[in-house]
Amino acid sequence: xxxxxxxxxxxxxxxxxxxxxxxxxxxxxxxxxxxxxxxxxxxxxxxxxxxxxxxxxxxxxxxxxxxxxxxxxxxxxxxxxxxxxxxxxxxxxxxxxxxxxxxxxxxxxxxxxxxxxxxxxxxxxxxxxxxxxxxxxxxxxxxxxxxxxxxxxxxxxxxxxxxxxxxxxxxxxxxxxxxxxxxxxxxxxxxxxxxxxxxxxxxxxxxxxxxxxxxxxxxxxxxxxxxxxxxxxxxxxxxxxxxxxxxxxxxxxxxxxxxxxxxxxxxxxxxxxxxxxxxxxxxxxxxxxxxxxxxxxxxxxxxxxxxxxxxxxxxxxxxxxxxxxxxxxxxxxxxxxxxxxxxxxxxxxxxxxxxxxxxxxxxxxxxxxxxxxxxxxxx
Length: 379
Prior knowledge:
By secondary structure, the protein is of the alpha/beta class. The chain is about 40% helix and about 20% strand.
């Protein structure tokens, strides 16, 4: 078909294919439902292209191995779900303050604790942003189809490399185990971003020095003659610890700003039938699939409703949400939790629009009919 690669593919499989296309050459993980296929397929595919796969003893060690591999120069990823995501949080914070690019996939399932291991949920939205302690940067992307999983995995690696930060791919069980026919792009069509390297000699290199006009330090792998120190403590440009308040303020502010000041680049979303919408539905991940069909059903009944689908969950799309709230005076946030994203929508938009919630936490996907019923309720 004109050189196109057409394949019936599972969401978890698309994640691995996208990661390899983006340059992933190291995976460390521990099998956990519903993300296990990502580890299985990585173990099969990486050795064939000179990459490395390691099954670690737990999720804590998995995250540590990913950080180490990235410092050594390999694009690295791990995947998990539920309790495993909780275990990764301390090392995830370490990656944030040491500015180590890596990708963490969380295929969400029902919780808390062991919860509903084989059922879908979207209960880790707030954990993705605030799961580790302290003020820290975070980018989290969420797909709603198999092709989007492929594309957003590539984006996750590109953002990680560009901004030297951990990036979370926040999937859910619906998308992880969904199978769809997709067209896989040719490699030459895929934008691949690599970390910026220093142009100084090893003797002049400071691992956290920021050049004029830049906000992200340049990075060189261990083993190439550049000796430098990495610590989870607040550090200066040399990488060594410091307790100076002015240095701490400068570092933490820069970590936050390298994401916040680049929100226009990081913000990914789709709009559907919003031009004349009097009611806006906000939905993401697997739930967005039901929401889109619900919009079509409601339109057939003469109700002017549209869909806003954030693919960037963090940083929060406050500018876009505020604009939406000024146009449609009623917003329904649909999600498989008790309103984690809705809290943020209410925070920025409740002065302009009435905000409603449509939630489910029983391990089942919210149906289009349920969303249509909510639309009629608020009309």
